[in-house]
Design a protein that fits this description.
The chain is of the alpha/beta class. The chain contains nine helices and eight strands. The structure holds zinc ion.
Length: 257
Protein backbone atom coordinates (compact mmCIF):
# COMPACT_ATOMS: atom_id res chain seq x y z
CA UNK A 1 0.00 0.00 0.00
CA UNK A 2 1.24 3.47 -0.89
CA UNK A 3 1.35 6.56 1.34
CA UNK A 4 -1.59 9.00 1.24
CA UNK A 5 -1.09 12.78 1.49
CA UNK A 6 -4.12 13.80 3.57
CA UNK A 7 -3.50 17.57 3.21
CA UNK A 8 -2.07 19.43 0.22
CA UNK A 9 -2.99 22.75 -1.42
CA UNK A 10 -2.52 21.77 -5.04
CA UNK A 11 -4.64 24.72 -6.08
CA UNK A 12 -2.00 27.12 -4.67
CA UNK A 13 -0.65 29.55 -7.27
CA UNK A 14 2.88 28.26 -6.67
CA UNK A 15 1.83 25.30 -8.87
CA UNK A 16 0.39 27.41 -11.68
CA UNK A 17 3.37 26.78 -13.95
CA UNK A 18 3.54 22.99 -13.54
CA UNK A 19 0.46 21.71 -11.64
CA UNK A 20 -0.12 18.93 -14.17
CA UNK A 21 3.38 17.47 -13.75
CA UNK A 22 3.36 17.85 -9.96
CA UNK A 23 0.07 15.96 -9.78
CA UNK A 24 1.14 13.27 -12.17
CA UNK A 25 4.43 12.50 -10.45
CA UNK A 26 2.79 12.66 -7.02
CA UNK A 27 -0.07 10.35 -7.96
CA UNK A 28 2.41 7.83 -9.37
CA UNK A 29 4.02 7.57 -5.92
CA UNK A 30 0.97 7.96 -3.69
CA UNK A 31 -2.33 6.30 -2.82
CA UNK A 32 -4.05 9.67 -3.11
CA UNK A 33 -4.27 13.31 -2.02
CA UNK A 34 -6.88 15.44 -0.24
CA UNK A 35 -6.97 19.11 -1.21
CA UNK A 36 -8.71 21.23 1.46
CA UNK A 37 -10.31 24.57 0.61
CA UNK A 38 -9.50 27.87 2.30
CA UNK A 39 -12.47 30.02 1.23
CA UNK A 40 -15.45 29.66 -1.10
CA UNK A 41 -13.63 30.38 -4.37
CA UNK A 42 -10.69 28.19 -3.40
CA UNK A 43 -13.02 25.36 -2.34
CA UNK A 44 -14.56 25.44 -5.82
CA UNK A 45 -11.09 25.06 -7.34
CA UNK A 46 -10.37 22.14 -4.99
CA UNK A 47 -13.58 20.42 -6.11
CA UNK A 48 -12.65 21.02 -9.74
CA UNK A 49 -9.25 19.35 -9.24
CA UNK A 50 -10.92 16.38 -7.53
CA UNK A 51 -13.25 16.03 -10.51
CA UNK A 52 -10.35 16.04 -12.92
CA UNK A 53 -7.97 13.62 -11.15
CA UNK A 54 -8.79 10.09 -10.14
CA UNK A 55 -7.18 9.89 -6.72
CA UNK A 56 -7.57 13.51 -5.66
CA UNK A 57 -10.32 14.30 -3.16
CA UNK A 58 -11.45 17.69 -1.86
CA UNK A 59 -12.62 19.34 1.34
CA UNK A 60 -14.51 22.65 1.44
CA UNK A 61 -14.45 25.38 4.04
CA UNK A 62 -13.10 28.70 5.32
CA UNK A 63 -9.57 28.64 6.77
CA UNK A 64 -9.21 30.78 9.92
CA UNK A 65 -7.07 33.24 7.92
CA UNK A 66 -10.04 33.83 5.61
CA UNK A 67 -12.75 33.63 8.29
CA UNK A 68 -13.62 37.29 7.81
CA UNK A 69 -14.70 36.50 4.24
CA UNK A 70 -17.48 34.08 5.23
CA UNK A 71 -20.84 35.63 4.37
CA UNK A 72 -24.32 34.87 5.65
CA UNK A 73 -25.56 32.05 3.44
CA UNK A 74 -22.13 30.63 2.67
CA UNK A 75 -23.09 27.47 4.59
CA UNK A 76 -25.58 26.71 1.82
CA UNK A 77 -22.93 27.38 -0.86
CA UNK A 78 -20.47 25.05 0.85
CA UNK A 79 -23.23 22.44 1.32
CA UNK A 80 -23.96 22.59 -2.38
CA UNK A 81 -20.30 21.83 -3.17
CA UNK A 82 -20.45 18.76 -0.92
CA UNK A 83 -23.00 17.31 -3.33
CA UNK A 84 -19.99 16.22 -5.36
CA UNK A 85 -19.13 12.67 -4.26
CA UNK A 86 -15.38 13.37 -3.98
CA UNK A 87 -15.87 16.10 -1.36
CA UNK A 88 -15.02 14.17 1.79
CA UNK A 89 -14.82 16.77 4.60
CA UNK A 90 -15.43 20.30 5.81
CA UNK A 91 -12.01 21.96 5.98
CA UNK A 92 -9.80 23.40 6.60
CA UNK A 93 -11.39 25.19 9.51
CA UNK A 94 -10.06 26.26 12.88
CA UNK A 95 -8.19 28.99 14.74
CA UNK A 96 -4.87 30.69 14.01
CA UNK A 97 -3.71 33.06 16.75
CA UNK A 98 -0.17 33.18 15.37
CA UNK A 99 -1.02 35.26 12.31
CA UNK A 100 -4.41 36.63 13.45
CA UNK A 101 -5.35 37.42 9.82
CA UNK A 102 -9.00 37.49 10.95
CA UNK A 103 -10.17 38.82 14.34
CA UNK A 104 -10.31 36.05 16.94
CA UNK A 105 -14.02 36.41 17.70
CA UNK A 106 -14.74 36.09 13.96
CA UNK A 107 -12.50 33.02 13.71
CA UNK A 108 -14.37 31.40 16.60
CA UNK A 109 -17.82 32.16 15.18
CA UNK A 110 -16.86 30.89 11.72
CA UNK A 111 -15.39 27.72 13.19
CA UNK A 112 -18.60 27.09 15.15
CA UNK A 113 -20.77 27.68 12.08
CA UNK A 114 -18.74 25.17 10.08
CA UNK A 115 -18.78 22.54 12.85
CA UNK A 116 -22.58 22.84 12.77
CA UNK A 117 -22.53 22.46 9.01
CA UNK A 118 -20.35 19.34 9.21
CA UNK A 119 -22.77 17.80 11.69
CA UNK A 120 -25.76 18.57 9.46
CA UNK A 121 -23.99 17.03 6.47
CA UNK A 122 -22.51 14.09 8.45
CA UNK A 123 -19.01 14.95 7.21
CA UNK A 124 -15.73 14.83 9.15
CA UNK A 125 -13.73 18.01 9.76
CA UNK A 126 -10.13 19.03 9.00
CA UNK A 127 -8.92 21.28 11.81
CA UNK A 128 -6.17 23.92 11.66
CA UNK A 129 -4.90 24.96 15.11
CA UNK A 130 -2.00 27.33 15.55
CA UNK A 131 -1.29 28.82 19.00
CA UNK A 132 -4.96 28.40 19.92
CA UNK A 133 -5.01 25.06 21.76
CA UNK A 134 -7.11 26.18 24.75
CA UNK A 135 -9.85 27.89 22.77
CA UNK A 136 -10.03 25.22 20.11
CA UNK A 137 -10.38 22.40 22.62
CA UNK A 138 -13.18 24.33 24.38
CA UNK A 139 -15.02 24.90 21.08
CA UNK A 140 -14.54 21.31 19.89
CA UNK A 141 -15.89 19.95 23.17
CA UNK A 142 -18.84 22.34 23.19
CA UNK A 143 -19.77 22.46 19.51
CA UNK A 144 -18.07 19.47 17.93
CA UNK A 145 -19.50 16.66 20.03
CA UNK A 146 -19.44 13.35 18.20
CA UNK A 147 -17.90 14.85 15.05
CA UNK A 148 -14.99 12.82 13.64
CA UNK A 149 -12.04 14.70 12.22
CA UNK A 150 -8.33 15.33 12.11
CA UNK A 151 -6.04 17.96 13.65
CA UNK A 152 -3.79 18.62 10.68
CA UNK A 153 -0.10 19.35 11.16
CA UNK A 154 -0.50 18.56 14.82
CA UNK A 155 1.24 21.01 17.17
CA UNK A 156 -0.30 20.40 20.62
CA UNK A 157 0.90 18.37 23.59
CA UNK A 158 0.79 14.60 24.09
CA UNK A 159 -2.01 15.05 26.64
CA UNK A 160 -4.08 17.07 24.17
CA UNK A 161 -3.53 14.40 21.49
CA UNK A 162 -4.73 11.71 23.88
CA UNK A 163 -7.79 13.77 24.73
CA UNK A 164 -8.56 14.32 21.05
CA UNK A 165 -8.22 10.62 20.33
CA UNK A 166 -10.73 9.90 23.10
CA UNK A 167 -13.08 12.37 21.43
CA UNK A 168 -12.77 10.43 18.17
CA UNK A 169 -10.16 12.57 16.40
CA UNK A 170 -7.07 11.67 14.45
CA UNK A 171 -3.80 13.62 14.49
CA UNK A 172 -1.81 14.29 11.34
CA UNK A 173 1.95 14.74 11.00
CA UNK A 174 3.77 16.55 8.21
CA UNK A 175 7.24 17.83 7.36
CA UNK A 176 8.01 19.19 10.86
CA UNK A 177 8.28 15.57 12.08
CA UNK A 178 11.51 15.32 10.07
CA UNK A 179 13.09 18.45 11.56
CA UNK A 180 16.09 17.87 13.81
CA UNK A 181 14.72 20.07 16.60
CA UNK A 182 11.20 18.54 16.69
CA UNK A 183 11.91 16.45 19.79
CA UNK A 184 8.52 17.00 21.44
CA UNK A 185 6.59 16.26 18.26
CA UNK A 186 8.63 13.12 17.63
CA UNK A 187 7.89 11.92 21.16
CA UNK A 188 4.15 12.40 20.52
CA UNK A 189 4.40 10.59 17.18
CA UNK A 190 6.06 7.65 18.94
CA UNK A 191 3.33 7.38 21.57
CA UNK A 192 -0.06 7.98 19.97
CA UNK A 193 -1.83 4.89 18.59
CA UNK A 194 -0.85 4.42 14.94
CA UNK A 195 -4.53 3.67 14.18
CA UNK A 196 -5.21 7.37 14.84
CA UNK A 197 -2.41 8.89 12.77
CA UNK A 198 -2.56 10.45 9.30
CA UNK A 199 0.31 11.76 7.18
CA UNK A 200 0.41 14.93 5.09
CA UNK A 201 2.62 17.50 3.42
CA UNK A 202 0.59 20.75 3.68
CA UNK A 203 2.15 21.48 0.27
CA UNK A 204 3.42 23.92 -0.89
CA UNK A 205 4.49 24.64 2.71
CA UNK A 206 6.48 22.75 5.37
CA UNK A 207 8.90 20.89 3.09
CA UNK A 208 10.46 17.96 4.96
CA UNK A 209 14.16 17.54 5.69
CA UNK A 210 16.45 17.26 3.68
CA UNK A 211 14.54 19.27 1.06
CA UNK A 212 13.78 22.29 3.30
CA UNK A 213 13.80 25.62 1.53
CA UNK A 214 12.23 24.24 -1.65
CA UNK A 215 8.57 24.22 -2.62
CA UNK A 216 6.88 21.16 -1.14
CA UNK A 217 5.03 18.55 -3.21
CA UNK A 218 2.67 15.72 -2.18
CA UNK A 219 5.18 13.02 -3.16
CA UNK A 220 7.46 14.20 -0.35
CA UNK A 221 4.99 12.74 2.18
CA UNK A 222 7.14 9.66 1.75
CA UNK A 223 9.86 11.38 3.82
CA UNK A 224 7.33 11.93 6.64
CA UNK A 225 6.32 8.25 6.47
CA UNK A 226 9.98 7.23 6.68
CA UNK A 227 10.53 9.48 9.71
CA UNK A 228 7.51 7.97 11.48
CA UNK A 229 8.59 4.43 10.59
CA UNK A 230 12.02 5.07 12.05
CA UNK A 231 10.57 6.60 15.24
CA UNK A 232 8.31 3.61 15.75
CA UNK A 233 10.72 0.90 14.66
CA UNK A 234 8.43 -0.26 11.87
CA UNK A 235 8.94 -0.87 8.17
CA UNK A 236 7.75 2.10 6.14
CA UNK A 237 5.31 -0.24 4.33
CA UNK A 238 3.52 -0.90 7.63
CA UNK A 239 3.23 2.83 8.33
CA UNK A 240 1.89 3.43 4.81
CA UNK A 241 -0.62 0.61 5.13
CA UNK A 242 -2.07 1.71 8.48
CA UNK A 243 -2.14 5.45 7.78
CA UNK A 244 -3.75 4.99 4.36
CA UNK A 245 -6.40 2.73 5.92
CA UNK A 246 -6.95 5.48 8.49
CA UNK A 247 -7.63 8.00 5.70
CA UNK A 248 -10.15 5.58 4.19
CA UNK A 249 -11.87 5.05 7.54
CA UNK A 250 -12.06 8.73 8.51
CA UNK A 251 -13.07 10.14 5.13
CA UNK A 252 -15.10 7.20 3.87
CA UNK A 253 -13.13 6.93 0.64
CA UNK A 254 -11.46 4.00 -1.10
CA UNK A 255 -8.05 4.10 -2.79
CA UNK A 256 -8.16 0.51 -4.03
CA UNK A 257 -9.55 0.97 -7.52
ZN1 LIG B 1 -3.58 23.63 5.00
Amino acid sequence: MKVFDSHAHLDDNRYDADREEVLERSLRELAGVINPGTDLADSKVAVELARRYDRVWAAVGFHPHEARLMQAGDEARLAELTGEQKVVAIGEIGLDYYYDHSPRDVQQAVLTRQLDLARQLSLPVIIHDRDAHGDIMAIIKREGKGLPGVFHCYSGSLEMAQELIKLGFYVSFGGPLTFGNAVKLQEIARKVPLERVLLETDSPYLTPHPLRGRRNEPMHVRLVAEALAQLRGLPVEAVAEVTTRNVEALFGLSVSQ
